[in-house]
């Protein structure tokens, strides 16, 4: 239904002291620079101020070497992700995507009555681009999430470039870079600048901690962005974001040390947690370069998630392809200590 966030599922009301590591949010929230910009800008909120949005788009384009018209600013990336998917798939234009991966791909395919071609991740949890290419002779779109949600694992840029080069004419490669900033790998936004059939999604919900403020970019050739209007008329009105969101996004982009600092905080906390779990003998999905990881709970993940909830720790869901694994978001060091205690307790509980 309507309402709720992009990755939330149905989140139950939780006690105020609950550890919430279920929806890949950033426990640090917006940066101080973003908060200041948001406050200052709120006072100007009586006017439409389209130039506010234009400024943010100009900063983004400059940072990524994009020409005018190659990016659009939206309230979050989930909306433009739907538009990117839906404007390129349909009954005779299938969607090829990875399994397990972010469910918005197959959900959009259902909406559009587009045939679905899920392709298993490789043994080391990369998108299997060779198998994706072999899945169908003429898909409408390939959907790649990099780093992947829920595994946090990376698909090498070289593999994505291979797919772009070898894919059939008329299909697009949609690369969801929601978690890109947490990794050390290169973006494929340069492929958009090079006029390839590529649509990249970026969000301010993750490393920038603005999930509730809402800002995100669709990056693509102007003709591919124009096509968004074929599924939502007019798509431009969806791109009308509040001036506070725009100002917060721009301040975040211009905050020079922010990404590196937050990437390090996330990496350290994630690695500490994974080291703890590994030492205790639990099996994890290795190689996460994002603010999430998966762990084997040796029982249906949904049951385990409910046990953890009783310990006041809200963890993420499981995926049909990996039913005994749960996804856990990286919280603060203190939150991850509470997670560890609750995790060991719940794992020690007998289950049937
Ligand atoms: N793409 C992926 C892979 C996500 O995990 C999410 C949210 O969790 C989104 C897109 C959409 O997020 P938002 O609309 O907040 O940018």
TrEMBL record:
Residues in Aminotransferase class I/classII large domain copies: 22-339
Transmembrane intervals: none
GO molecular function, one term: transaminase activity
Domain of life: Bacteria
Keywords assigned: Aminotransferase, Pyridoxal phosphate, Signal, Transferase
Family: Belongs to the class-II pyridoxal-phosphate-dependent aminotransferase family. Histidinol-phosphate aminotransferase subfamily.
Name of the protein: Histidinol-phosphate aminotransferase
Organism: Granulicella pectinivorans
């Amino acid at each position: 239904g309507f309402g709720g966030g992009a990755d939330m599922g149905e989140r139950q009301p939780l006690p105020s002291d609950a550890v919430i590591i279920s929806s890949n949010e950033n426990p640090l929230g917006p940066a101080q620079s973003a908060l200041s910009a948001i406050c200052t800008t709120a006072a100007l909120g009586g006017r439409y101020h389209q130039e506010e949005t234009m400024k943010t788009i100009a900063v983004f384009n400059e940072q990524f070497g994009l020409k005018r018209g190659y990016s659009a600013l939206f309230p979050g990336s989930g909306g433009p992700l739907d538009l990117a998917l839906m404007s390129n798939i349909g009954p005779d234009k299938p969607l090829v995507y990875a399994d397990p991966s972010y469910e918005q791909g197959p959900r959009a395919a259902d909406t559009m009555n587009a045939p679905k071609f899920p392709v298993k991740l490789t043994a080391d949890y990369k998108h299997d681009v060779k198998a994706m290419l072999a899945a169908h002779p003429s898909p409408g779109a390939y959907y790649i999430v990099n780093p992947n949600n829920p595994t946090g694992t990376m698909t090498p840029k070289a593999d994505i470039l291979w797919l772009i080069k070898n894919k059939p004419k008329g299909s697009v490669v949609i690369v969801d870079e929601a978690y890109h900033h947490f990794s050390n790998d290169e973006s494929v936004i340069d492929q958009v600048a090079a006029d390839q059939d590529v649509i990249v999604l970026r969000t301010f919900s993750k490393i920038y901690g603005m999930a509730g403020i809402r800002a995100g970019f669709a990056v693509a050739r102007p003709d591919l962005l124009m096509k968004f209007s074929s599924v939502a008329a007019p798509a431009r009105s969806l791109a009308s974001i509040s001036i506070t969101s725009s100002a917060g996004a721009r301040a975040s982009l211009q905050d020079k040390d922010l990404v590196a600092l937050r990437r390090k905080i996330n990496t350290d906390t994630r690695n500490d947690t994974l080291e703890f779990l590994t030492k205790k003998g639990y099996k994890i999905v290795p190689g996460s370069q994002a603010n999430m990881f998966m762990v084997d709970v040796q029982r249906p993940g949904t049951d385990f998630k409910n046990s953890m909830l009783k310990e006041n720790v809200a963890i993420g869901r499981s995926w049909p392809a990996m039913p005994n694994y749960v996804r856990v978001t990286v919280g603060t060091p203190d939150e991850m200590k509470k997670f560890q205690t609750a995790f060991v307790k719940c794992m020690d509980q007998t289950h049937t």
